[in-house]
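Researcher: Next entry in the queue.
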Amino acid sequence: MKKLRVAVLYGGRSGEHEVSLQSAASVINYLDRDRFEIVPVAIDKQGRWHLNDISLLEGKKSLPVFKDAPKVVLPPNPADPNSGSALIRLGESGEARGIDVVFPVMHGPLCEDGTIQGLLELADLPYVGCGVLASAVAMDKEMTKRVAREAGLPIVSYVSLKHELWKKEKQQSAKRIEKELGYPVFVKPANLGSSVGVHKVKEQSRLNMALEDAFKYDTKVLVEAAVNAREIEVSVLENPHVGGDPLVSVPGEINPTHEFYSYEAKYLDEKGATLIIPAKLDAEQTGRVQDVARRAFSALECEGMARVDTFLDRTSGEIFFNELNTIPGFTSISMYPKLWEASGISYPELLSRLVDLAISRHERKRMLVREFHSS
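Model: Structure for this entry, 375 residues:
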């Protein structure tokens, strides 16, 4: 059987560039070589696309971005309707290679927020993961909370601040936060992941410093009430049977050794957190967390995959929806694949399922009528 040619897309112009290099290394190492031919495509921090040599990437824990590698150009014409694959071209007039499906392993703005997904839609290429709408909504933490609230999911109280307005109204903003949320609070950029730019603020005197840093990464910042809660996560997978309920994993728990699950705890400190899989929950709690994850996935109209993060209040026992990641971390020790392993789906099988879902979804979309003919 002819192997499917999978372009693994990694790097990108976001603050999570380095995280992507680690995630993509694992994806490349675990993709089934009997089924797939892997075409590594790196996007450097300036936004240039490069075709990398797979032989130079084997077994690495973090992928390099070779600046002298051949440049990749996506042609303006869509996929060949007969072959079902699109082309990537090496340089302006170089060799053209067919691509059957793209596996974006990129995190953050200009990567995970619908921009890459929109480009791949225009190129008529199947791609793993959520579409433009869910990617864009989930990347913006405030928009995610709006949709979740509309769907009846419980969320933690928050205040949203825009940079230009905050600079004019710092005192008013601080008073509003004090009145509506109290302290401690978490300050986080609205459109970033991996805890980049996130601060826990325990008193008003530290608020502006945290906001200044968060606004370095985004023009909109969320300030959320801190709850004394356990961090419970669930991996979600699109049902291969169209219209079926999303599949949910066993829940896992993040137990950070730092004050919260910061960037340092996630990626710089090997002992920054303990992943407890499965989370120590009773059957009723497990069912409620999985229900929140399933409903959040559906409410945001996700496709392919997502990791849903929740809070379990230690005092009240209430479960709060926190956020949804459409391209979660994919290293071999990341929560998304580890939760599926604990639920009976190995890492290689999970990757294969995601590719199959992408192709199936693309085939359904191609059946849609693109022209209107009046009767």
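Model: The chain has three domains: 4-128, 137-154+228-326, 158-225.
Researcher: Noted, moving on.
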